[in-house]
User: What shape does this take?
Amino acid sequence: MREGIVLQQQGRALPAAERYRQALRLSPSVPGAYNNLALIALGRDELTRAVALLEEELQRHPASPQAALNRALVLVRLGDFARAEAEATKFAALAGGLPEQDPERLARQRRARVIVALARLGAERPAAEVATPLEAALSGAEAPDDPVLAAARRALFLVHAGQGTPEAALATGAALDAPDDQLLRAALLARLGRYDQMLSLVDAVKPADDADPYPSLLRTHALVALGRDAEAAAALGRLRLDEASPWAGWRARLTATLASRAGDWTGALAALEAVSAPSADQWLDRAVALAHLGRVEEARVAVAGVLRDAPDHPRALALRASLE
Assistant: This one.
């Protein structure tokens, strides 16, 4: 068994699995063997096999918290969120504080709380119900390299970002250094109007001439907001996007903003009309451009179309009033 654990820690899954099977042939009830085989199966995305191995472990060792929590984690991956939450909740102690003198139990409770949150997230429960176990898992945490705590921080970051609380998301995500997380932080800074910080963050993650549209558009968005129009225009000129791209609408709005600042309302309208499936705000941008070109009736029609779908749209209501 011990040799199998060492091999598994070294990333040598196949010889580790063989050692576990040898141990089971010698003693079919050796603790942890089925659990560790399940982790190897999980690493290969063999989820059904992993569950079967964990249930074998639990049949022989019903009190094994490691096997129970691993099964809950696999159930999350399988989409059985209700069972996963019920299993993990047994170990999460959500109603009470974390123990201070038992590091093993503390680590187990933190992991259980993260699994509860993942199950709730998968089940599309309200954001507050997802955040509660994550905040409990992070309470008093002092181990920045702990993978469980790292997972909790990232999940809480995404929850706050998704529920429209950018300040909370930025505070939670301050220690996250993966490029995708940093770019999401940049997008949140844009929502707060902190464009200098946004630009610095994007430049630290991706070079200015990077071909990936998302960071390039984030950077250009910041440049436009900061009034650095010449740099923004040059960045848009380097960007190559198909009109069917999901980023095409964003590029069109940035292009239209630069054109309108230069007094080129014909150019602004042309950029917006190139978008195949405009959003409500893009229709309203078109209405503004049409009004500046003296095509007021067409502008009214564009605004009316938005109000048919969203009668309380504040920008559309303001535009309608200005066009009357």
Summary: DSSP finds 19 helices and no strands in the chain. The two ends are 81 Å apart (CA to CA).
